[in-house]
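Case study.
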Amino acid sequence: MAIEKEKLIDMYRVMVRIRTFENRVYKEFAAGNIPGFVHLYAGEEAIATGACANLRLDDYITSTHRGHGHLIAKGGKTDRMMAELYGKKTGYNKGKGGSMHIADVESGILGADAIVAAGIPIAGGAALSAKMRGTDQVTLCFFGDGACNTTRFHEGVNLASIWKLPIVYVIENNVYAETTSVSYAMNIPNIADRAVAYGIPGVTVDGNDVLAVYEAVGEAVARARRGEGPTLVEGKTCRHYGHYEGDTQTYRTKQEFEECYKRDPIPRFRKKLVKMGVLTEKEADKIHQEVEEEIDRAVKFAEESPFPEPRETLEDVYT
Amino acid sequence: MKEITYQKAINEAIDEEMKRDPSIFIIGEDIGKHWGGSLGELMGLFDKYGAERVRETPISETAILGGAIGAAATGMRPIAYLYFDDFLGVCGDELINQLQMKYMYGGKTKLPLTITAYTGAGLSAAHQHSKSLFGWLMTISGLKIVAPSTAYDAKGLLKSAIREDNPVIFLEHKVLLLSRSTSQIPEEEYTIPLGKADIKREGSDVTVVAIALMVHRALAAAGKLQEKGISLEVIDPRSLVPLDKQTIINSVKKTGKLVIMDEEPKIGSAAGEISAVVAEEAFDFLDAPIKRVCAPDTPIPFSPVLEKFWMPDEEDLIKAVTEIM
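After joint prediction, the assembly is written out as follows.
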């Protein structure tokens, strides 16, 4: 697969940006600077990055409660995201959404959603809209293994399949739906096998290999753009943090964590890029340094931004 | 002027709007050429606009309403046909968690989306096909609620609902949809703004706020009470959100008495909310306790005898009015 050097470096930078953002959110949340709930994406960066690297600005994504990575990969700005997490007026949602609802419709981010699987029908609607308006926009719909056992998965995927909607379902199988393991919740080894039931392609890839994700989603996006309908792409991954910050994770063994860290997609991709001669170690370090500085600026922006006026509570209910 | 049924009014409203705006489409079950909607109100639209814009779905309420939300957020103007309002529970998440997208996103999107659903009892359709959910729906912020009682109102309000840039649920009473009675409407195009009540009958002794089918029962009761020298003013709010408080309060200022007639169990009903509004904002003008003529706090029974007992009727209203005279 021939991918331009700049694209590879950009993908690495996006992964580092997500990780650095999440590690910082972890710290600021623990320090009491971020209200509400947060669900961190660290460990799963290869999926959002590899998937969104196939998209144009005018393509759509729908995201989940664990959505920071999707938004960054689709081009969300870390300062406005951080400001939203802090509940500030300068945040993407003017402080009305928070971590679980960040949206930037202008860059195709139709929003994170705190209800598991709720994005599936909505993504179908966006894809239907693109089709009816005669564009070739594609909608990429992210959700986890937990969502695959809900009504909305069946209704949404079935409808998209009969209408051949331009949509790619990206299943992030991170092994747990909250505390419930996928092996308990499903009787099949690969979720993408469910594609057979809808007469659409399904593919399972190593979700910690950004290039494998890029390639699989790339094929699915091309298929969707050609008007040939939806695809299920499952990436197998694992989360570095708990379901939410505060989760004691008694359901995960020490060995599981060790195996998860061993599969960490970022050092793995870095090693590959260095081996391919795309990046030197020094250049890679520089990316980390630059991203650290960016996230420092994002936190500063969030800290220094004003809170919304209390009366803004009453605005934006209706147009 | 022309004579038109409630059913035809709905058909004409959607037809005229679809003709005017190509971004409008209908999405739902059994809306195509075979049935044209379960009660036939969409008949002919499939032949006229085709499968692309009269988009039949499998039985998938979450995909219908969720899909309509996604389409509305990205440049289309869908009409989500949800069949019976009893089925709204199936897509409850979309109603209570997703329709609020605009607010949650800090105002950065709009959701020009109309939901249509049948409401009300009277067909012996039992508990799962007979409910009125006005009060329940009124708790859903960001959702406008329309429940017309006449063909004239249905047409003008549905056109306005479709043109709204906000989610609107348009509730069609089944008894009215199947009624052969007609009302006069203009030949030329008209719309009726949401949030404007209509005084269906002027009177001086008691204000009666009645919703949907209950408007007709209130008017029948008003005729009977007139013979006894009691004059009812019958107000049809037409939309429950936004609610035209002023028209109701102005009437209460004149009559000093309020009865609300609402075809749903009393607890948590729209009647309760309207009653609270008047108690809060016009208490000093009341000469008697506010009365609510509602259904009992039970599920809806099947047998015609039981259903008749369950539904508020003109005798119930006459009794309530007599109590406060």
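Observations recorded in class. Chain B is about 40% helix and 20% strand. The interface with chain A takes residues 25, 52, 55, 57-58, 60-76, 78, 93-94, 97-98, 101-110, 141-142, 144, 165-166 of chain B (CB under 8 Å). We will return to this complex in the next lecture.
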